[in-house]
Design a protein that fits this description.
heterodimer, A: mainly alpha, ABC transporter involved in vitamin B12 uptake, BtuC, two-stranded antiparallel sheet, B: mainly alpha, two-stranded antiparallel ribbon, 3% strand, globular
Chain lengths: 353, 291
């Protein structure tokens, strides 16, 4: 079968290439993302759709952080929305104090990550459902503070045009500058993906995995529960806060009321549907959970579209437990099976692989 | 004195709604091992049905309440058979996200069936009150508190004293073993979902006159119910009820006497600190863990 041989060679070469040069994959992914503002400039994508893509990019970062927590450490957080909000609103508050954007972002990240570490400390005592609800407490406390404390303003907080590195001023009101902002947050997303890749392939990632299988066994192997619980929660809050900062950067106006339990649940759904432990899968999950309903279904069905997105979530969980990311693995298995069946006709028994 | 009495009455009323919702959450948590985030939304859906029937057929609040409880029973059974039972072998977190899917479906169904406007629902006793030491106690409040206590009492009696209650308790403690012993665990779980839906609907009917009927009407109640279950301990049925009244009282007390901005935050922080020292709630026991 000549077709299969050539296909095999192509697939193998591609597979080897992306395995040996992982950055090539991320580079390609970034180029694909950069096509979106390009399409926007030639009016293939409307401004509203660009906003939806931007939201997907932003929320993927929060979902990546949650994937470290959920996929690698087996812990759950219902407070993600609170930290995304803290990132977005925190930047606004620090900018109001007169800090430049970069410093404001760093200050927000430090404060928020410290708070996350505190939850990590808490998680040593409390576990299971109690820990999940404890993180919900934190999320609710943050939400309460956002909506009632005067420094965050009433309905929303205005940031206005953002000055990067002291000289590049970008405002979301100008269409072309908005495209630049999209390109920047896309690059930030890919940066965070690479960061996550490094974290999970390092000693930390292995320790987290060991901890999620059995905390007692991990401790016996010398993994410090204190250190890595703190690490897991700090990383998750770091990613969530970073995602909030990206939100502030792109939208330049941050509502105070939308950081509720629902958003946290959606972020969890992105990880579950996309695939535990999968970096690209998290993005696909975000696209399925937020993108498909808002880009396509809403135009067709209006408010009723929620029924379809709800069904979509349930169906994926019921019939595709591992998440969409493992679709690639299954396709490869299917391909091998197909090849065997066709080969089987001419060569007798197919070799097992 | 009048103020503190008013706060107590108020807390007993809101606490009752929390307690009803919390009992449903714990019932589901114990039997199907999942956190039901859709508890509030299920209650809201049936409150919509009640309000819709009341508006279009002019029935009294008593009659529509019975109808809403009946539809709640059916909602619970439908959800369990279609979505929860097939998810038996799904990971725990994925199972929780199924309840998010249920929320989405209900959010989509509500405008489809009832339109986008909010509804109003009458209270059971719109007028009439008595004065106790200067604080007004409305008949409706008395009714809500009495019914809640009666329902909870009935549920406790059912769980502790009847054969089916025993089935619930053994399913909650170990599903596989109970199945081996011939307990119809599938029916028990279905019953748990049906009663949880009815409890949520009751909470919705009690809250509705004050907040009007809209999709997120029970969000606050549901979150408080989660907090109450954690405070009281998920491993008992009494704990969440006690936790509900404690949370309702503390919230009303702090927002009235200390600060309406920081009141809730202080209560939540206080409970978090409490949980740090008593991680399984007031009544909860530490589960035995095998290595």
């Amino acid at each position: 079968m000549k077709v299969f041989n050539t296909l095999d060679t192509v697939f193998n070469a591609l597979g080897r290439f992306f395995k040996n040069v992982p950055y090539a994959g991320y580079g390609l992914f970034l180029l694909l993302l950069w096509l979106i503002p390009l399409f926007h400039s030639v009016d293939v994508i409307s401004s509203g759709q660009l906003g939806i893509f931007a939201y997907i990019v932003v929320i993927t970062v929060a979902a990546l952080g949650l994937n470290i927590l959920l996929g690698f450490s087996g812990l759950i957080s219902l407070g993600t929305a609170g930290f995304v909000g803290a990132g977005a609103l925190g930047v606004g508050v620090f900018l109001d104090l007169g800090l430049p954007f970069e410093l404001a972002a760093i200050a927000t990240l430090i404060v928020s990550t410290a708070l996350g570490a505190l939850i990590g400390l808490f998680s040593l005592k409390v576990e299971g459902i109690y820990l999940a609800i404890a993180t919900l407490f934190v999320g609710e406390i943050l939400r309460q503070i956002f909506t009632t404390v005067p420094i965050f303003g009433g309905q929303s907080i205005m940031i206005g045009s953002v000055t990067l590195f002291g000289f590049i001023e970008l405002s979301t009101f100008s269409q072309s500058e908005r495209r630049v902002l999209f390109a920047i947050i896309a690059a930030l997303l890919v940066g965070m993906m690479i960061l996550m890749q490094h974290i999970v392939k390092s000693k930390t990632g292995r320790a987290l995995l060991a901890m999620s299988r059995s905390s007692s066994a991990a401790q016996a192997m010398g993994v410090s529960l204190l250190k890595y619980r703190l690490m897991a929660f700090s990383l998750a809050t770091f990613f969530a806060t970073f995602s909030g900062i990206m939100y502030a950067l792109y939208n330049q106006s941050v509502p105070t009321t939308q950081w509720t339990l629902d958003l946290s649940l959606f972020v969890i759904a992105m990880v579950v549907v996309g695939g535990y432990k999968s970096i690209y899968g998290t993005f696909i999950g975000a696209f399925i959970i937020y993108g498909i309903p808002n880009l396509y279904l809403k135009d067709l069905f209006g408010d009723v579209s929620y029924i379809f997105s709800g069904l979509l979530i349930i169906l994926v969980i019921l019939f595709y437990q591992n998440g969409v990311a493992y679709l690639a693995v299954d396709i490869r298995l299917l391909y091998a099976k197909l090849k065997r069946r066709i080969h089987g006709g001419s060569h007798g028994k197919a070799p097992l692989d | 004195m009048a103020e503190i009495l008013r706060i107590i009455f108020n807390s007993l009323e809101t606490g009752s709604a929390y307690a009803l919702a919390a009992l449903g959450i714990v019932l589901i948590f114990r039997t199907s091992k999942t956190t039901n985030f859709a508890q509030g939304m299920i209650g809201a859906l049936n409150a919509y049905i009640a309000a819709f029937v009341a508006l279009n057929f002019g029935l009294s609040i008593w009659l529509v309440s019975v109808i809403a409880l009946a539809t709640a029973f059916l909602t619970g059974i439908t959800i369990d058979t279609l979505m929860i039972r097939p998810a038996k072998n799904v990971l725990p977190v994925s199972k929780q996200i199924i309840t998010l899917g249920i929320i989405m479906i209900i959010i989509g169904i509500i405008p489809f069936l009832f339109g986008v406007n909010n509804f109003q629902l009458a209270s059971y006793f719109p007028t009439g009150s008595i004065d106790i030491l200067g604080a007004t106690l409305r008949f409706n409040t008395i009714f809500v508190i009495t019914v809640s206590f009666a329902v909870m009492g009935l549920l406790f009696w059912f769980i502790q004293k009847t054969r089916w209650g025993l089935a619930i308790r053994v399913t909650a403690s170990d599903e596989t073993t109970s199945k081996l012993m011939g307990v119809p665990t599938a029916t028990v779980t279905m019953f748990a979902w049906a009663s949880a839906a009815m409890l949520a609907t009751l909470a919705g009917l009690f809250v509705a006159p004050r907040v009007s009927v809209y999709p997120n009407m029970l969000l606050n109640v549901q979150i408080s119910a989660f907090f109450a279950s954690t405070l009281g301990g998920f491993s008992t049925f009494l704990g969440p009820v006690v936790g509900s009244y404690i949370i309702a009282f503390l919230r009303n007390f702090t927002t009235f006497y200390i600060s309406d901005i920081w009141g809730n935050v202080m209560v939540y922080m206080g409970i978090l600190v409490f949980l740090y020292f008593k991680p399984y709630g007031i009544f909860g026991k530490k589960p035995q863990k095998k290595v």
